[in-house]
Each structure stands twice: as C-alpha cells, then as structure tokens.
Amino acid sequence: MTDLLQLVFAGLAQGSVYGLVALGFVAIFAVREIVNLVQGEYAALAGLSAISAVGAGLPLVVAVLVVIPLVMGIAVLLERLTIAPIKKMTPLTSIILTLGVSTAVKAIMLLIWGPEAKGLPTFPGSDMTIGGVSIRSQELWVLGISVIVAYATIWFYEHTIRGKSLRACAEQPVAARLVGISPRTATVVAFAVAGFTGAVAGVVGSPIYLSSWQSGLSLGLKGFVAATLGGLTSLRVAMFGGVLLGVLENLVAGYLSSGYRDAVAFVVLVLVLLFRPHGLARKTSGVRV
What we know:
By secondary structure, the chain is mainly α.
C-alpha cells in the first residue's frame, strides 16, 4: 500500500507539469484553433534559461521571475514571425508550421546549452515522510504552484470578459470583429498565456525532472495527449488529463517496467482518437483531433 501511495503522489507532481503544458495547448486552440507544437519548448527554454541565470549569480527567485516573462515574450515573438503572416491558418497547417519552429528552437537550445541535461536548485523546503510515503519538498512546490496557475488560467478564460472574448474569436470570429474584439490581439494574448504556463512548468519541474534541449519533445507530447482528453477545448479536462497521465506513467513504471513509461502516452492517445475523438468533454470541436 505504501508503494502505491508513493507512486501515486510522485505521479501527481509529474502529472501537474504535464497539465500546465496541456493548458498552453488549449489556451491557443480555444482562440485560433492552432495546434502549437512549440509548447513543450517553452518549458525547456524556461528551465535552461533559469539555470543559466542562477549560474550567472542571480538568486533563484529573481531568475524565475525574469525568465517567465522572457519566455512569454519569445512565445509572442514566434507567433508574430511565423503564425501572424499566414492569412488562412488551418489546424493541419499549424501542426506543420509549428513542428518546423519547434525543430529550430531545439537546434538553437542545443547550440547554446549543449546536450547535457541540467537541473535548477530545489526550491526552499525540507523533505518529509508521512505514513511511510517520502515526499520531496519540490514536489509540494510543483503541486502548489500548478494548482494556483491552473486555477488562475481557468478563471481568466471562463470568468473574465477578456477571457470570454478570446474564446469568442474562435467560435464566432465575424461576430467578434463586429463587437470590436481584435483577433490579432486575442492571438497575442493566447500565446502569452501559453508561454506563461509552459515557462512555469519548465522552472518548477526542472529541479526534479531536469531540463535539456530535447526535454520539450517529451513534455510537449505528454501535454498534447492530456489536452486531447478535453478535445483541445477544455482547460479543466486538460489539467486533469495531465495529472492522470502522470499517475498512470508512474504506476506502469513501478509495477511493470520503467521502459513502458513513455508508451503510456501513446496508448492513451490512440484510445482517445478511437473512442472519444472529441475528448472527454461533451462540448465538441469542429476539428477532429
């Protein structure tokens, strides 16, 4: 029983990171129906940038507070340079385009930081043991920050006029323009939100799961699978999907073999595409994911 609880708790922390990445996918798709495969690179870039900032002498908190806005700015810049010039963007076009951008970002990170995986120093706190379950302080930081960021993102999109206006751009683009909602501004805000959630995932997860030029590939894949559980439209289901995926991965690794860990995401993706192509949320999208 103790082993089960240990695996579940570790999975909750890891899944929270996947959930934050998944929020970024939904934040953009809900506004422009763009599948942004660069989402995982935001996390890798944030982690590596924060590591360099700490190495340059900045305190950990300052480094994190500097890096997150920086990654948000890079996310918006990439959107302005690659997405904005295309007049008619379809989900398939966005997949092809952002895959190319993702590859380019990976190459740049490899040139700057090299192939070695690195980790941020752990956040302040002490590890503890409760009922035989070992709990790392960084895992508590991951869970706490993930809950706050997820709640803030969901609240912004579902309970604020600005957030609702962003979703209106995807659902009724012509009507949105008629009432003065700029699709261009909405897209910029959506990419900024995606950059924010991705950057937070990168910095809180780096002390445990490390950051490297290719870590964004795995995070992006897991985040995308979690987002598909909500049909790429539900923020709540995307966050839940990330947590569920993290728990399943740890259970499979603990009871079967760690070699099967990464296969879990592919199995979940295939099952979703076969049986619930619009996700677990009842609200369907016009695009089959």
